[in-house]
Inverse folding.
């Protein structure tokens, strides 16, 4: 019995280490956001990158706040995130280098089609959110220090509203974009979401897009390399290849090609800068 | 209701047309959880027996700690392990974060208290029953350990299965130390979390159904082995 057991254990160890060995050659870890993962962009883009370069990208998809945290501990080789303020601080603190604008998409304000705050067809999120606060219609907040959450807080600030989460109309969920949309659909609440996650989201209930298109709703993403001078274990060479590929004319074209239902979800930015 | 029906349909078609993605996830889930349970059993069963038969100062405290550790929240274990395995943590040089190995370690830590604490109870009860008999045969406490472990093997198999149940169903720890990387550290439970966050509730539930079936198969296999060996030994 012990013998069979040990044999089984040996087989399992072999399988596990074979998996690890296969993964050991030319792999980088990318800390990124749930929106890029859940939009399906990585599923489209990473196989093309791997074919071009032979490098596998392991994506850890978390909120931007947590992605920056992972990077600041040296646990990722590169970052693809969306929070300009947080990114600049990350670089200024010496955790990252060579921040580049990669692409943008935009945020949309979604809510129940009954629209109790009457914000439909608007393009100014600040005015719309002020109205939501005025009539105290339910609003679901990410509340997780993600890029989307930080954007939402900036919009409240401009609107001069200081929402407090509790049993009232403003509900801080502390969840990712998808779970927040699930909850918003269930309690017929308004919420801010990026267009890519929305386009890929299936459980919409009565939620529809109510406010979109305004200048303030732009959602820019950047690529940042984790500083190899600070973290010697970082796979600097491979990460640089990824970083350069993403901002190359080819990589930028691949980003522009990604569509769901004929709709382009991300708009390349780096080519324009030069 | 339509979601539930859709989930069952999807689960059936997932199983019938085994696709590569699902197979990878299932295999990784099994490899991680079975390895963790094996490691936890190798350490936990003798540990439980030692605590059951031992008479040392602070024994009650050890029993209390073991029993309480059965309720360890997976997220907390994941978080502690994350800080340990992080490049900036004490075990950073091994580069284990976001690998299947990290997930095995996390689940071993979660399963170990369950195996040790339950084994302790099983062995202690057995020892109370047979202590005199074993002593009269000149068997010391120390020497009694293998005998008792062997004698309690069917109860201990259930203990190990309880540990397996914990491991295969757990998501909080593996998602933190594994990172839910597609094709590398994605398990059944982290895939369920991902599909739920995509709002694809029928697919998430279908994964759940496959997971329950998987657990049933493992438990069924162990039941069969028990029956066969019982029959064989007579």
């Amino acid at each position: 019995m012990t013998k069979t057991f040990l044999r089984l254990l040996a087989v399992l160890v072999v399988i596990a280490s074979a998996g690890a060995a296969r993964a050991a050659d030319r792999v980088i870890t990318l800390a990124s956001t749930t929106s890029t993962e859940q939009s399906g962009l990585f599923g489209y883009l990473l196989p093309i990158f791997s074919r071009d370069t032979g490098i596998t990208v392991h994506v850890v998809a978390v909120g931007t706040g947590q992605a920056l945290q992972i990077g600041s501990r040296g646990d990722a080789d590169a970052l693809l995130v969306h929070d300009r303020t947080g990114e600049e601080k990350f670089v200024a603190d010496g955790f990252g280098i060579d921040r580049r604008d990669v692409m943008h998409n935009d945020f949309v304000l979604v809510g129940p089609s009954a629209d109790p705050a009457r914000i439909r067809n608007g393009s100014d999120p600040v005015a719309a959110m002020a109205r939501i606060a005025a009539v105290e219609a339910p609003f679901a907040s990410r509340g997780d220090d993600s890029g989307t959450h930080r954007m939402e807080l900036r919009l409240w600030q401009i609107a001069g509203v200081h929402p407090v989460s509790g049993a009232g109309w403003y509900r801080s969920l502390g969840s990712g974009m998808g779970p927040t949309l699930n909850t918003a659909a269930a309690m017929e609440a308004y919420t801010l979401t990026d267009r890519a996650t929305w386009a890929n989201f299936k459980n919409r209930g009565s939620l529809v897009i109510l406010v979109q298109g305004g200048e303030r709703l732009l959602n820019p993403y950047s690529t940042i390399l984790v500083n190899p001078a600070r973290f010697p274990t970082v796979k600097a060479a491979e990460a640089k290849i990824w970083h350069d590929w993403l901002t190359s004319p080819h990589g930028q074209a691949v980003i522009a090609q990604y569509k769901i239902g004929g709709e382009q979800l991300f708009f390349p930015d780096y080519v324009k800068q030069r | 209701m339509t979601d539930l029906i859709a989930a069952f349909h999807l689960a059936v078609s997932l199983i019938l047309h085994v696709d590569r993605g699902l197979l990878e996830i299932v295999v990784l889930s099994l490899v991680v959880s079975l390895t963790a349970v094996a490691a936890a059993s190798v350490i936990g069963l003798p540990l439980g027996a030692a605590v059951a038969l031992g008479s040392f100062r602070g024994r009650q405290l050890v029993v209390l700690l073991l029993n309480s550790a059965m309720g360890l929240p997976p997220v907390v274990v994941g978080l502690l392990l994350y800080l340990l395995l992080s490049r900036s943590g004490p075990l950073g040089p091994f580069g284990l974060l976001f690998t299947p190995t990290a997930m095995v370690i996390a689940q071993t830590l979660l399963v170990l208290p369950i195996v040790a604490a339950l084994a302790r109870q099983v062995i202690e009860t057995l020892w109370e029953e047979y202590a005199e008999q074993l002593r009269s045969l000149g068997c010391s406490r120390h020497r009694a350990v293998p005998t008792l472990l062997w004698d309690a093997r069917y109860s201990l198999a259930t203990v190990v299965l309880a540990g397996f149940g914990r491991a295969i169903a757990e998501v909080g720890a593996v998602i933190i130390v594994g990172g839910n990387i597609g094709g590398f550290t994605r398990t059944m439970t982290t895939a369920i979390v991902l599909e739920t966050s995509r709002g694809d509730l029928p697919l998430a539930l279908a994964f759940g159904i496959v997971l329950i079936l998987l657990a049933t198969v493992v438990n069924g296999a162990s039941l069969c082995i028990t029956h066969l060996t019982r029959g064989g030994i007579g």
